[in-house]
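Hello again,

I reread your note about wanting to compare the complex against the isolated chains. To keep things tidy I'm splitting this into two emails, and this first one only covers the full assembly. Below are the input lines as submitted, including protein chains and any nucleic acid or small-molecule components. They are followed by the predicted structure of everything together. The single-chain runs will come separately.
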Amino acid sequence: MTVPTVLVSMPFMQVDRPSIQVGLLKAIGEANGFPVRTLHANLDLAARIGPAYYRLLAEHRGRQVGDWLFSVEAFGAAAPDVDGELPAEFADELAYLAGESASVRDRLMRTREHDVPAFLDALVDGGDWHGTGVVGFSSTFQQNTASFALARRLKERFPDIVTVFGGANFDGVMGLELVRSVDCVDYAVIGEGDRAFPRLLAALAAGTDPADVPGVARRDGDRVVATEAAPPLDQLDDLPAPDYGEFFERSASLGLPTAETWLPFESARGCWWGAKHHCTFCGLNGTTMRFRAKSPQRVLDELVGQARRYHAFRFEAVDNILDPAYLKELFPALAAGRHDFQIFYEVKANLTREQLKVLAHGGVTHLQPGLESLSSGVLRLMDKGVRAAQNVNLLRWARYYGLHVGWNILWGFPGETEEDYLAQAAVVPHLVHLQPPASAAGIWLERFSPLYAQPDRFGPQRRTFEASYRHVYPEGVDLDRVAYFFDHEFVDALPPSAYAPLAKAVADWAEAWSGGPPSLTFRSTRGFLRIEDRRRQGHDGTYTFHDTLADIYVACSERPTTAPAVRSALGLDRPVADVEAAFEQFAERGLMFLDGNLALSLALPATPGR
Amino acid sequence: MTQPHITAEEVEELFAKLDEVQLNDPQRALLSAILKVAGDVTEVTGLSGAADDRPPDDRSFSDQFATAFTPHQAALVVEYAAAPQENLISRNNPPCPPVPPGSAQAAMISRRGTPSSSQP
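Full-complex prediction:
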């Protein structure tokens, strides 16, 4: 016996890409003999309210606006903030949501009171729900209340439907509390669903208790019955490729463009760095930090197979960190095969020039290296395992090899000093030929992060769930257990004014790129160096150096280097102090980045592609 | 004792490995000192060019720095191969902090990539 199943991805999943969560679970379900359909219902809302407005709601998740939009439909009379106080309370932060002819509040209230109910009605009325046994919801970030709202309506109309929830929002205590407090949740998978999901379907088909399946939870009165999750999946090669067919069909039927779609793929789970040194602010991988990766050959085969299947060349790795083994096997194979892919990856920032070259030649065009800071002191407080000079060096060679880098500057770490930020502000004007950060702002306190989980380690702090949660969930939901983001203040926190100079410098950096990227390049031969400086309009110029100074500068170009190492490499008779003095002089002119005992030349070779 | 032949690649691999080692400040200072000594006594090839037999500098460092800059002469423009500038990351990522007054710009992206199935 089988259980006809529909897996739903609700708003506010991004509109421009299929959900790997439901795509993968569909493939897993069908591999186990269960008929599974996927429904990217988020596309329907995007089509209804317009993709541009939808993207604003999906991309900005500073406050729980997306969940607030669905909370009345999810919780009915129990919903808080029926009158719509949230837009006023966070008016400044939500200014980006203003319409051409509508205030933020008017626009959001119209969405909440008209578009959302109509969207839900259309899903229930227009969907083929008769005969459906199970409706599964994958919920990550602001997908909770939209999922609850649809589940609630479906159960009212089709009482025999069994609802199953899972995804990151159901990890750990969050999932247990949602199962306890939200009536329309029948079962939840806590943790990875690759094995629990088909077993749960099998239990439902057999008429046994799904809560006996490892990793599955259900409500029993006012308590939750849950079986401990099985260990996370080790052999990722055993997983099928995600099935995205219904995403493209639905996009086409709704008139949404898919030509620019980046196909999500998963080559690894967990974080090999976090397993050893958990970055203090990071709340990802709540219960599944251990790193596991698909084999390079399997990844290559999957990319080729998905490209042929969906006529796509753009791929987005959902991995948290690149498997170093891919640098030696996967990307060289992609380069050798002349596959014309464009690939996004998250990486650790300690990649060398040669490794970035391998990535670029292998088709990687977009990187997210988690740079976070230009201060080694602050990076140490984060437990990032890199120095600022390595971050800058990654930006240099990424620019050289044409890699787009997405990164942020973060602040607000216990133990940081005002000098940490003054020093960063001072150096930023020298870095404007490198890709600017997308933002510079304070950290958020995330559940599962060391800053959250280890308060004794980081000193006293005031913390409470992020303020907008109380506009979303009814009183009966314990927000301390459901929230992922928390407002906080460390006892030794710096005043906001400490960050103002850096914020200004970063704004200027972004402005410098608005008319095309500035440049700082050099040409050299042995004993002669010419640096062309076009970083600041009106201050263009050429630096010329000869003999030892030229050689010192070039010796610090490949990677951050110490004065003794340069002296040794160049066979200099001069004392190390002379080399250090040269470093200082280069740095004073904005031509070198100094980081403790490390020096890094900032100019890039004028000859491309080497 | 025979001097080991060390290449620049091997040095980089060592640095990459050391980056992953968690050390407290005294340990890091000690390791830094050890590496300084090692750098002084070990010949590393392939870094940026070996020593040559050119004559010593005919101008002091300070003289060179004082006259190194010539304004308005930077005519060299290099266009490296560039990835599409669409901000994939901005469409892609988990939440980012709210923008404090006076900060650089709207916090369009966050510090991490697309959440996988097990992460918020």
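For quick reference: DSSP finds 23 helices and 26 strands in chain A.

B.
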